[in-house]
Amino acid sequence: MGRTLTAEDVRRVFSPDKLGFETTEGLEPVKGIIGQARALQALDFGLEVSDAGFNIYAAGRTGTGKMSAIVAFLEKTAQGKDVPSDWCYVNNFQDAYRPQAIRLSAGKGIQFHRDMKRFIETARDDVKKAFESEDYTRRRDALAGELNERRQKVFSQLNQTARESGFAIQMSPIGILLVPVVQGRPLSQEEMLALSPGEREQLSRKQEGIQEKIKEAMNQMRTWEGDLSQEIDRMDLEVVEFVLGGRIQDLTRKYGGESPEIPEYLKAVQDDIVENKNLFRSPPEAEAANPFARMMITQAMRKYEVNVLVDNSHLKGAPVVIENNPTFNNLIGRLEKEAQFGAISADFTMIRPGALHRANGGYLVLRMEDVLRNVFSWEGLKRAAREQKVVVEDLAERYGFISMKSIQPEAIPLKIKIILIGENILYHALHYYDREFPELFKVKAEFDSRMDFSEQNVGQYAAALCLVCGKEELRHLDAGAVSKVIEHSSRLAEDQRKLSAQFAEIADIVREANYWAGTKGKKYIEAADISRAIEQKEYRSNLIQEHIQEMMDRELLKIQTRGSAVGQVNGLSVISLGDLYFGRPNRITASIAAGREGLIDIERESKLGGRLHTKGVLILSGLLAERYAMNIPLTLSARIVFEQSYEEVDGDSASGAELYALLSALADAPIRQGVAVTGSVNQKGEAQAIGGVNQKIEGFYDICRIRGLTGNEGVMIPESNVENLMLREDLVEAIRRGEFFVHSVATIDEGIEFLTGIKAGQRLEDGKFEEGSINRRVQDRLEKFAKGMREFMRENGGRPAKEREEALAGTGTVEEEE
What we know:
Elements (H helix, E strand, L loop, with lengths): L2 E2 L32 H12 L7 E4 L6 H13 L7 E5 L9 E5 L3 H24 L2 H31 L2 E6 L2 E8 L2 E2 L2 H6 L2 H59 L5 H15 L1 H5 L2 H6 L1 H11 L5 E4 L9 E3 L5 H5 L1 E2 L2 E3 L2 E3 L5 E2 L2 H5 L3 E5 H6 L3 H11 L1 E2 L4 H4 L13 E2 L3 E6 L1 H10 L3 H4 L2 E4 L3 E3 L2 H18 L6 H15 L4 E3 L2 H17 L7 H13 L3 H11 L10 E2 L2 E10 L2 E14 L4 E4 H4 L5 H18 L8 E6 L12 H13 L3 E2 L2 E3 L2 E2 L5 E2 L4 H15 L6 E5 L10 H8 L4 E5 L2 H9 L17 H22 L5 H11 L7
Parallel strand pairs: 2-17, 2-18, 9-14, 14-17, 22-27, 24-25, 27-30, 30-31
Antiparallel strand pairs: 1-31, 3-4, 3-8, 5-6, 6-7, 10-13, 11-12, 15-16, 19-20, 21-26, 22-23, 23-25, 28-29
């Protein structure tokens, strides 16, 4: 008949004396991750392998402390790594739409930015001063004076030639004019018309000759002006090169060894300044007087800036970046734009880094759910991991939403470890549906939700509590409080041999206990504070549970806890409502009759039964057939139902209770209604373990307590569930006082004996069960059903009545009653 458990069996009590300390205040805080050897090994492996694709997926239940534990582990690992390089974007003077990426040693990026800014400011001032210097002005004036002397000489010769030919040269807005002169006086229009044709022709030939000489002189002067302009340009080049040369050499010496691109870039800067020297020689007062000009000059000067994309000067190891909002731009980077005079523009100074840039050379930690919630982030992340480079691009342009001219920054090589944190279900789904996922995330670090209840883990648990208290400036726990936390942890794990790894929930209990200790003015958190925190946390959420218990007490929901009944048993189920997880009793009834329908699950027929529940009912059919109908057809029409159940029922934990109700109905043996039943059953009649056993027992205990305990109330569970028991302390005390009991059974035979008080009975050599036993009564009942069915079918022509009526109706024959 199984065994009735003692108070010591139903809860593992951990003595504070075993801890070896009085409070956690004197303990050393835990370092690293506790109770997760498998996950630690996977993390170590994944972080050390440098080959492509060996990124990490940390899988496990929420609340196990994966994020904080992994970040702490990474930060410790990162301290021993080299600080990665800085990255900058500079202008590409060959193609401004393709900014150039430059790698520099850590801390050099911001220095290069500052040095270039200082260089441009100084160069602008020095170039302006050089062009305004007396030496430059004197040399330029000398060249201009030489040109003017040549011009004067040419004009003097032209005037002399014109006078000798009877003409005078006059300057006008439209050019040089030749005017005929007689006796020193220009001829008027009337005098010109008065000349004879011959005189006019002679005058015209002279004029053409002089004009040809003027044209030659003007060509010569233009050549001289071009030579002067070239000479001034050469002089300006010498001035600019003299001003910039030393500083460019200094920058080349300082940064040339950092990257081979820097000397080329500095040479391009110098050449561009020479080409745009007028940008540097403009007077400041012109900018101040014209805001538009000032803005245009400021914008033009941007091309000499250095955009420091990643500055690692503050790091003392590899970076560890946690991106809590992994949008596409937050991961990959973004191209900012600005509006000027109605036009949208962008340049290399508007390139902004993403998390991949900041974590380059180190570690990037992301929550998988957050990545999947953001459209395009997952594809962008995979692309960067696959190509091992990060390309900053406009998302709208990449997917063709908008087509407009924009910059295309040079890609930056990526050397990074990506750690995704998420649930196991996401890992399996991605592994199955995304063919790239197994190639890019080859390492799985699985965090267990439980750990062994060992002396070592208990010590680490206490050290973890010390860490929480010290980090958050909470009161430390005394030994009694630690023991309560350990016991509660074992309850969360639902196993007397295990501790829960859901540190988030444990930490919340400590925080609440700290509050309650504070209300009493205590120096340390005590066991009573832990107990109160647990009770209050449940009390804040269990209003609906109390309403259900009230309805049972008022018999609005029918639950019988006294007496006995045939074909009726109290089953136990668990209701999960977010933070509320509690057990409730359900009346299960079975009705039987002779027939061919077999075992009918009313929950399934009404579409309120889940697949697992349906499987459990079908297992009962197999058990009945093998045990009681090996030599006869199973002639049974039975219906099983959860009474007053208005929501879906799933799981097979009630299959044992359903079988007891069915056997009770078949054997006509009353079942004790003060005993509730949980546990599944297999086809061989063995009781099997189920989940939520603590909540189920407590749910039935609460309704019995409300109605008044008599010592005849209790719960029957599978023997294999005994080690899962970590019952509430008030229930344990009721068991100790004999007011309530928990009984365990290994088989259905043991269970039915305990519920009915009648021997289950063994099978004898002739195939029959022992006389008077439950099994014999069931066997006899089923044989009676089979015999009755045979007689009924014989009387109805070998077919059931319904089939016979249909046949007669089809032939038009009327069968009269005898």
